[in-house]
Amino acid sequence: MESPQSAPLDYVVIGAGPAGLQLGQLLRTAGHSxxxxxxxxxxxxxxxxxxxxxxxxxxxxVHNGTDDPELNLRMDWNSLLTPDGGPLFSQYSKRxxxxxxxxxxxxxxxxxxxKLDIAYDTSVERxxxxxxxxxxxxxxxxxxxxxxxxxxxxxxxxxxxxxxxPGVEHAEDYSAVSVDPDDFTGQRVLVLGKGNSAFExxxxxxxxxxxxHVAGPHSVRLAWNTHYVGHLRAVxxxxxxxxxxxxxxxxxxxxxxxIEPDTExxxxxxxxxxxxxxxxxxxxxxxxxxxxxxxxxxxIFDPDCRPELVIDDRFAALTPAYESxxxxxxxxxxxxxxxxxxxxxxxxxxxxxRYAVRALARVLDERHHERPWPHTLVDASxxxxxDAVVSRVNRSSALWQQFAVLGDLLVTAPGEPARHHxxxxxxxxxxxxxxxxxxxxxxxxxxxPDHDKIDPFDxxxxxxxxxxxxxxxxxxxxxxxxxxxxxxxxxxxxxxxxNLENQWDDPEVHHAPLADFFARELDLRxxxxxx
Length: 531
What we know:
There is one protein chain. The chain has helices at residues 18-30, 69-72, 100-113, 196-205, 223-226, 238-244, 350-368, 382-393, 398-401, 426-429, 507-523, and strands spanning 9-14, 34-37, 118-119, 124-129, 136-140, 145-153, 159-160, 172-173, 188-192, 211-216, 250-261, 267-273, 280-285, 287-290, 294-295, 309-310, 315-316, 330-332, 376-378, 406-412, 418-425, 439-446, 479-486, 489-495. By secondary structure, the chain is of the alpha/beta class. It folds into 3 domains: 9-159 and 295-368, FAD/NAD(P)-binding domain (3-Layer(bba) Sandwich), CATH 3.50.50.60; 168-292, FAD/NAD(P)-binding domain (3-Layer(bba) Sandwich); 376-526, no CATH class.
């Protein structure tokens, strides 16, 4: 590898997965100096191993009845954002649930297309502050030092999240366990975890294992009910059918107290069950498999620049600008961004964080390169503001994917056109950099607050009427929400009525009530003399 430059770069990015590539493309386009460090021989090293059974659960719906590239991104969960003519994942696979190897081919071509500066075979061993204390020194396994004014970590959650259970060392981890069902023929298997990796593993063994138990202390949450795509997906839940139809498999709700080798082979596992008071039971298994997720690896950081960890030490704590709360200049990109919307939106997945990474690039430009957040000017009349909102919610993929997290921002002042900023992290908007001393409106797509408490297949449960202006505030399904703020204080809220086709453009049902809302809210502002 060529020796790094002695002058500090604007940015060093650790990790050439989807987020690192996305940020690299944006930094390169902006003209910033950067380098991406990647431990593997090519981009996307994580996907060379995971998912273990090689079927992605990120959808790839190619035929959507539209030629609009923005609308198509709503159904394309694997492509990165590109300038016109850049590669799209749909050119690499037509499968709805594609093979992981197709993603690897796509990421390699993306990196090559944009000639990204990536140092492969470069494993980061240490991250510290430089002597002046205002930058970072990243040391790799070759002893080379990469210096940068700012550091972006895009490594994802790279370490197994091993639960603290006595005897857990006897279990096999999801990252290394055999994926050949024949290796489990006739065996009793315990799978710890209740996420997609656990059920993916269990489904793979249904035809060969004698007994399969999937266990964990929390309830199974189904993605079709919660609208969080990281919860159990239908493509992985065949195991539930084998359990409920009494095929010798079971779902166990409780804590594992210990795992001990049995003198006759296999293991004795003690459970404390959640649905029974103080009941402890011991069961025997031939194999125990850990499918308990992953966590962030903070071991490479020196103590003076180690990010604070949260959520059981699995993620770095972040500000609304995706910056470490305790290490200035250390930013996060990719699936680690989900700390800001943990298990609520799509920040942990490509189709969500590609937009969060673009927002991060705009934050970096604004904070460190004197480049304001891009905006257009909109006439501040109620009708024109309503036009701008309706146009965006009917087409935007970013607001669709990063529901309730990213929003458009309309910033107003008496006698001036409104500034329209697209795809701003809502929490960042409230910090005031874009909105100081101004009224502003956030525009988001959101589910109703109790959407996950409704069985979507129970027709006896009444749903909010489609296109109902009067009941729009109670909508459970995805719909636009417009909020009026001043100095971070909420002054008014307007919900656009649900629509089956996700087209909020009816003149009487959608546009006119929204224009009326803007008219009322703009009337609430004090005169300039009162500011």
